[in-house]
Automatic annotation (TrEMBL):
SUPFAM superfamilies: lambda repressor-like DNA-binding domains (SSF47413), Periplasmic binding protein-like I (SSF53822)
Name of protein: LacI family transcriptional regulator
Superkingdom of origin organism: Bacteria
Annotated PANTHER family: HTH-TYPE TRANSCRIPTIONAL REGULATOR GALS, LACI-RELATED TRANSCRIPTIONAL REPRESSOR
Keywords tagged on the record: DNA-binding, Transcription, Transcription regulation
Native organism: Nonomuraea roseoviolacea subsp. carminata
Pfam families from the UniProt entry: LacI, Peripla_BP_3
Keyword Cell inner membrane: no
Amino acid sequence: MAIASIKEVAKLAGVSVGTVSNVLNRPDAVSPATRERVLNAMNELGFVRNESARALRSGRTRTLGLVVLDVTNPFFTDVAKGVEAVAADHGMIVTLCNSDQDGPREQRYLHHLEEQRVQGILITPVERENERLEQIIGRGTPVVLLDHRATRRNRCSVAVDDVLGGRLAAEHLLAQGHRRLGFVGGSWSISQVAERHKGAAQAVEAAARTGGQEEGGAEAPSLTLIEVPSLSFASGRHAAERLAAMPAPERPTALFCANDLLALGLMQGLTAAGVRIPGDVALIGYDDIDYAAAAAVPLSSIRQPRQELGRVAAELLLEEIDEGERHRHRQVLFDPELVIRGSSVRR
Ligand code: RIB
């Protein structure tokens, strides 16, 4: 059975095609009684509007694009939940794209979203600079950087102060008496990772300057870099195998991981190798996803306001879509929060 046309709806309701179009696009321009007659006719005929035809006429779909680094990471599903809630309030839908931390794949998705004439794009970019993104913005598609600080004033962004987050994590481990710290992270093109490491290094350097050594100057604070290929649970597991094989006196006694998935993979791998958490190695992650608190040893983490990030970014994008040239770009920055649990506190 074919979908009914606007003409068939107009005929059944006894109105013009223009009136049916008004009910769909400018319902306030139609009297309540006429609007009800048209809606009844639509229900009776099983009418479904042709969004593609409407988008063709208006030049834009009622869709927002959301490009995330890793759709399997609960951080991004929480962010997406915030984006989707705001989009739905405005009668819009969200097309979710997973770049999987892969630059070329991200470029393909951006090209697709522009071809689809989405109203705007939210993106956590793989690379700091992105020529394709600049071209898309130049051709008139609004873009808001999500969980990534804009380096230009003429770009909107919503992010968390990751340098502060890294500092909070390292200061917490130093306050527990640790001196041999490790930073587990990778994909340095991801600015969040580089900024978390920068904050941790600042805290360790400050501790070294202020005589953070043990009594008798036994050991100066240090931060060893443990590089991983991606911010995933599997990468954490593989890093655990490397760390467990290290002689204990050389191994960091505390690890700050660039996100919770890495920390949870490390926790599982180190525990399987007989390394006690936190007794032998303390752990702290980043994001404070729901699984952090539920871990075998509840994971300390640096909390990001995930759904709030998504909501604020979507609201900024819709503002820019609505205001056009009049829009005043903003770079919103949230503070992270230290959440202390059993994985980093010496009993
Ligand atoms: O995707 C990598 C990480 O970057 C996420 O865990 C989240 O912390 C984001 O900022």
